[in-house]
Design a protein that fits this description.
The chain is mainly α. The protein is built from 26 helices and no strands.
């Protein structure tokens, strides 16, 4: 038996099925999240939070969107534990049904006019379930794909987790935006907005068919057998916090890179369209910026994932973080000079292309920092904590650069760059993991495979994949 095969868990590696499973799950999770965010802005204020003050209704509606982020750390604890003790497959099926069924239930909710205060209460409960469910999806899917992928190609295959995230948002826009645009307002407000939520049923069926065919990963099964033989306690989150807290803190800091989509689509949209800032862009422009950005990202992500297998995880992540932070100045400046084409071009470059240096790499890098036994828990808790922090950034940005402020591009650009510098420093302080064998992941003292041998094994994996297609 070669050193490579000895260091890689033996068993059935269902790379393609695992990748398809992670991809379709991410599509469902973020299709659901995107349609909720859109509905919260367009129709929920009138249907679930009627008020004589429209500002109060809008704030209350958007607050239910934020509730989903509050539930994430709790979901990370519970679902991370479940994924590390009962398997990646089980936690992913659980996440899919929780998210899909709660989303369908939103589409069936009675409105405030029908049941009074019960309507917003039920809406908040369902949003909490959504946030709980999404907390385990990316960490579970990334771990499953990583553990099924051949050595030397983990970055490429794991990147499809995030390609699914972007594809889900494109699918949501493809369903929601035409309905909002073409249906008469009365029809859209009465039944049209429910259609995207009810269509989650189709994705649940497709996702379940794919996910039930995927076997548990050899890495998880090997570790599970070891722990059962030792009769060791099953508390992976304790192991993660005791022995891997430093890497978890690094992941929290790197996850702050979510500041870039916040600048592109949340604060950037408010700066461009809200009357107080005096820019006066059409709202339609900012409905399409996320769509265009996600289309570009879907194309770019696999190439960046493959690049991370060639040159390592840290270089694209560090460069992507710093350059995206610098481009935030150019993007906000384009808005300030009232240039719609330049603003779109800068958003696509900043978010659709450069940001993918981080976005395409973290699905392989984060789980590679932790051992198999605590992988899902450690990644879920730390990544969702960082993401939750960024959910508060739009409010912070509006506070430090409110309507009427001068030099908004410089102020917010500096803030965004500062956050991306923190992410880059965290990545710089972390160890490189791309050439570490699966059985050694999570070990700070693990010796990476020699570059020449690693490239030989990587090319061998590519050749085997190409031969399988022929």
């Amino acid at each position: 038996m070669s050193i490579a095969s000895f260091k890689e868990p033996q068993g059935t590696h269902q790379t393609k099925k695992a990748t398809a499973s992670g991809w379709i799950g991410s599509v469902l999770e973020y299709y659901d999240f995107f349609i909720y965010a859109t509905a919260a802005a367009l129709v929920f204020p009138q249907l679930f939070f009627p008020s004589t003050d429209p500002t109060v209704a809008i704030v209350a509606s958007l607050a239910t969107y934020g509730v989903g982020y509050v539930a994430r750390p709790i979901g990370a604890l519970v679902l991370g534990y479940w994924g590390d003790t009962h398997g990646r497959k089980q936690v992913l099926i659980t996440c899919m049904f929780l998210m899909g069924l709660s989303t369908m239930a939103v589409g069936l909710l009675p409105t405030y006019a029908q049941v009074g205060v019960w309507a917003p209460l039920f809406l908040v409960i369902l949003r909490l379930i959504q946030g709980f469910a999404v907390a385990g999806e990316i960490s579970g899917a990334s771990s499953m794909i990583l553990e099924h992928a051949p050595f030397g190609r983990r970055g490429f295959f794991s990147s499809f987790t995030l390609q699914g995230v972007q594809a889900g948002q494109i699918l949501a826009a493809a369903v929601f935006l035409p309905l909002a645009h073409y249906l008469p307002k009365e029809d859209f407000n009465s039944w049209g907005w429910r259609v995207p939520f009810l269509l989650s049923f189709i994705v649940i069926i497709v996702g379940f068919i794919i996910r039930r065919e995927v076997e548990e990963t050899p890495a998880f099964e090997a570790v599970e057998q070891q722990f059962e033989a030792k009769k060791a306690p099953k508390i992976p989150v304790v192991e993660a916090l005791q022995h891997h807290w430093a890497d978890m803190l690094r992941v929290v800091c790197m996850s702050l890179m979510n500041v870039i989509p916040v600048v592109a689509t949340v604060f950037g949209a408010a700066y461009a369209v809200q009357p107080g800032y005096g820019i006066g862009f059409s709202k339609d422009v900012y409905l399409w910026i996320p769509v265009l950005g996600n289309i570009v990202a879907v194309i770019v992500i696999p190439y960046v994932g493959n690049l991370s297998d060639k040159i390592g995880r840290r270089p694209p992540l560090i460069v992507g973080s710093l350059v995206a932070g610098l481009l935030s100045f150019a993007y906000l400046y384009a808005i300030s000079i009232h240039s719609v084409p330049l603003a779109i071009a800068m958003s696509l470059l900043m978010w659709g292309v450069v940001y993918q240096g981080y976005n395409a790499v973290f699905p392989s890098y984060y789980p590679e920092l932790f051992p198999t036994r605590a992988r899902v828990s450690a990644m879920a808790i730390s990544q969702n904590t960082g993401t939750m922090i960024t959910a508060f950034l739009p409010g912070l940005f509006a506070y430090i650069a409110p309507p009427g402020s001068v030099d908004v591009p410089f102020t917010i650009g500096c803030a965004a760059l500062g956050v991306t510098v923190i992410a880059a420093i965290a990545a710089l302080s972390a160890r490189e993991t791309s050439r570490i064998h699966m059985s050694d992941l999570g070990n700070p003292n693990a010796v990476p495979v020699e570059a020449a041998e690693y490239e030989r094994l990587r090319q061998q994996a590519i050749a085997q994949a190409q031969a399988a297609k022929a």
